Amino acid sequence: MIYLNRHVTGLSLNGLVLDQDYERAGQVTKRLIGAGLGRKIIPDMIVHRRHDLGPAGNLLAIEVKTHNREDGRLHDFAKLSVLTGHAAEAIAYDKCLRLLPSDPVPSDQSFRGHVSLPASMCPYKHGLWLLLEPDGPQYWWWSSGSGPRRLACDIEP
Q: What is the pairing mode between strands 37-40 and 97-98?
C-alpha cells in the first residue's frame, strides 16, 4: 500500500486522504456483491475519509489507463458507474464488468451474475476515468449519480 496523501497539500484540512489501490470500506474489504458473488473492487486511486462509512466518506474514485482498449474501458466505466451510484448494478463475468447486455464480452469470460454496492457502503460522490496517451489525456467524469460524460481537455503546446 502506498499512501499518497502526504504528497497532496490541503486535503487533510477536511480529513480527506488520497490513497492508491485502497480496498477497504471501514474495517471490511470493499466488494461488489450479488447473486452468490463477492467480487473485490479496488479503484486505482480514491479521495476519502478513512473509516467514514457515511455519505461524506467517499469523495472521488479514479481509474487511470495508458491505453484505450475497449475491454478495459468498459470494465472501468461499469466499475465507476456502480461506485458512484450512477448504475445500481453491473453484469459480472470472470474478470470483467459490463453495464449493458449488448456490451462485448471477451470470448474467454463466463457470466457470473449481477453485482451491486454492499448496503453498508455509500457511493462515491464523483468518479474520474483518466486516459494518458501521447496525443493528450482524455477525461470522463461521473458526479452525484450522473454520468459518464467526457470533459474537454485543455492542452497547452
A: unpaired
Cell output for 86: 450512477
Q: How much is the pTM?
A: 0.83
Give one word for 136, left, alpha or beta, with left for phi > 0 and alpha for psi -120 to 50: left
**102 contacts: CB under 8 Å, gap ≥ 6:** none
**Arithmetic mean of pLDDT, 11-38:** 65
- pLDDT for position 36: 55
Rounded to whole angstroms, the Cα distance separating 44 from 75 reads 13
Name the DSSP class of 116: B
Instruction: Inform me whether the pLDDT recorded for 132 exceeds 70.
Output: yes
How far is residue 27's CA from residue 14's CA, in Å, rounded to a whole number? Answer: 21
Paired strand residues for 17: 48
- When the pLDDT of each residue in the chain is averaged and rounded to a whole number, the result is 81
All three cell numbers of 25: 470500506
Q: Are strands 138-143 and 126-131 parallel, antiparallel or unpaired?
A: antiparallel
Strand partners, 39: 32
